Amino acid sequence: MLFAGLQEFLSHLESRGQLKRVRAEVDPELEITEITQRVLLDRGPALLFENPKGASMPVVMNLFGTMDRVRAALGREPAEIGHEILSTLERVNPPSLKSLWDSRSMLRRALFAHPSRVSSAPSQETVSEPDLTRFPILKCWPGDAGRFITYGMTLTQHPKTKRRNLGLYRLQVFGKDQTGMHWQSMKGGRSHYFDAERDGKDLEVAVVIGADPVLMMAAILPLPEDVDEMTFAGFVRGKGVPLVRAKTLDMMVPATAEIVLEGTVPVGERRVEGPFGDHFGHYSDAAEFPVFHIRKVTHRRNAVYAATVVGKPPQEDKFLGIAAGEMIGPLIKVINPNIVGMCAYAGAGFHNLLVVSLKERHPKEVLKTAMSLLGTGQLSLTKVMVLIGPDRNPADFRAVLHDLWQRFTPEDHMWLLPFAPLDTLDFTSFKMHVGSKLVLDASGEIRCAVEPPRNVDPRRYDARIDDWRLLSGGFLVVVVRQHARAIVANLV
Question: Among all residues, which ones are annotated catalytic?
C-alpha cells in the first residue's frame, strides 16, 4: 500500500489496532519517554499523544517499533527490496534485450522514482515565524542537556553540485529559533557543510519532521554519499516523492511533510551540544557542533509531530536498523561477490559488531574483503568485524561464538587497526571520530576440536590460561596469551 503522508499511515495502523491514542495530558519532558519505553518493550502499538503538555499539536511515538509496522510502511519485506535490486543489477550486467525485458518492472520503477514537483503543498498550509516552544519536543533522559528533536530529517544540498542528502541527526533546542546540528562523521550533511564552510558560505538546511513512512525510513539508510535518498524512497514507493519549493530557501522540500524548519547553518559558528542519552546506552559527551538558525516554519494545519527515543538497546531504531541492513546489505555483493551474508548486531548498536560470512577463493581474500568493507561508506565505522565461513549464519550469535572457539587463534587470525575512523557516538576512544578497530577471522579450518565448555562462570575464569577462547555462560570473556596482552590492553 502506498501512503501519501504520515497521517494516512497512522490511519492505516489505527484501523488494524496498531496505533493507540493517549488523550490524557502527558509531559514531553521524560514522561512520554517512560510510557513509550514500556510499550515498546511489550511490543505494543504506536502511540499518538493527543495532549502533550505545553504544546499545540500531538506527537506520535513508537511508529516503527515492530517489524510488522516496518513491513506495513514498506508494503513488503525489507529483504525483498535488497534482493530485487541485486538480482536486477546481476541480470542486466552485461545488458541484453532479454535481460532488459525480464527486468522491465524494476526498470519502470526506477524510471518513475525521481521526485516530482508541485506548486502548492499541505506542508505549507501554515507559514509562521520560528517558535520551537510550540512543539512537543522531548527531553528523553534525566541527564540530557535539554530538549532534542529526535526525528528531524535534515535536507541539504552540496554547495556546488546541488546533489541532495537526507539524513537523520539530533538537534538540541537552544532557543525559539536555534538548535544544534549534530552532524556525525561520515555522513552526507556533514560533508556538504565541510565543503560550504571551506568556501566561506553558509549552508541552507531544511529539517523535515514527519513525512510518508518510506521517506522517514530512507533518511536512516546508509546509502552511498551521492545517492539521493528521495529518489531511493521513490523507487521503493513506486512513485516519486512530491516536492515543493521552500519559502525562504533555494531548494525543494517534501510536499506532504508534517513540519518543515527552513534555515541556515552559518560558517564558523560552534556551540556546545549535549550530553545526550544515545543508542549505545550511555550519555554522549558534550562537544562543540554547528548551529542551525531557523528562518521560517511551515506545516500542515493539523500537523502531527513525529519523534523517537534512542537509548540502551532495544529501542525503535533496532527495527529501523534491521530493515536498513536487509534493504542495503545485499548490494555490497556487487563490490565483494565472495560475501554470502552479513549481520550488524542491534544489541551492539549496529556499528560496533558486524559478522560477515564469506568465501575465500584466493589466499587471504577474507582479509582483502575485510579491508574493503572497512573502507566502504558507513561500514567504515564498524568497530569489531568477525569473519565466518560461507556455510555459516552470521545472525546466529551462538554459532559465531562456536566458530570463534574452534576456528580462531590470535597469532594469525586477528588484525588490529590502532587508529581508524569511528562513529561520532563511539565512546571507547579518547578522541572523537578516531579509534581502534578489530578484525577476527573465524572462517577457516577447525583448529580446536574440543567443544566449548558450558555454564562457565567467567568471573572465576583464570586469565593466565595459555589460550584465547570465547566462553558463553551469560557473559562474553576474552582470555589471551601472555604475548597478546599488550595488544589487547591498547584496544580503545
Answer: 278
